[in-house]
């Protein structure tokens, strides 16, 4: 499961790292991190998709959140017995029937 998380997170770290460095023009002398290339890339994506280039980062962020939720749901499904046991333990600890106060 950790390999799946790593394979999911690695491209996200690379993309968002490039995005914020190039957005703020912190290029360390590399053309790849320049603001001009940033604008060109999003202009090309905007033309290909037929949308305003300014909304593409939001679309990517929404896709990342949905992918993350799907991955967490997959992880929770695989660990459902352990999670269920933990929930029963917490319920018994905090909502014990014998210790209900009488009015």
Based on the model shown, name its key terms:
mainly alpha, elongated, 4 helices, 103 residues
Would you kindly provide a written description of the structure presented here, covering whatever features stand out?
This protein has four helices and no strands. It is elongated and about 70 Å long. The model has no long low-confidence stretch (mean pLDDT 91).
What is the strand and helix layout of this fold?
Elements lengths: L1 H22 L11 H15 L6 H23 L1 H15 L9
Summed up:
The protein has 103 residues and is mostly helical. Helix content is 73%, strand content 0%.
User: How is the main sheet built?
Assistant: none
Computed CA radius of gyration, to the nearest angstrom:
23 Å
Helix content: over 70%
Broad structural category: mainly alpha
Strand proportion: under 5%
In the predicted model, the low-confidence regions spanning at least 5 consecutive residues are none
Instruction: Kindly state the number of beta strands.
Output: 0
How many helix segments?
A: 4
N-end to C-end Cα span? 49 Å
In N-to-C order, the SSE pattern is HHHH
Task: Give the averaged pLDDT, no decimals.
Answer: 91
What coarse outline follows from CA principal-axis ratios?
A: elongated
């Amino acid at each position: 499961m950790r390999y799946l998380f790593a394979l999911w997170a690695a491209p996200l770290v690379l993309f968002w790292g490039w995005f914020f460095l190039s957005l703020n023009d912190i290029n360390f002398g590399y053309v790849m991190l320049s603001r001009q290339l940033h604008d060109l890339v999003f202009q090309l994506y905007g033309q290909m998709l037929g949308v305003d280039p300014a909304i593409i980062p939001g679309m990517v962020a929404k896709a990342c959140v949905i992918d993350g939720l799907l991955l967490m749901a997959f992880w929770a499904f695989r660990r459902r017995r352990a999670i269920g046991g933990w929930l029963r333990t917490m319920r018994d600890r905090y909502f014990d029937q014998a210790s209900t106060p009488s009015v």
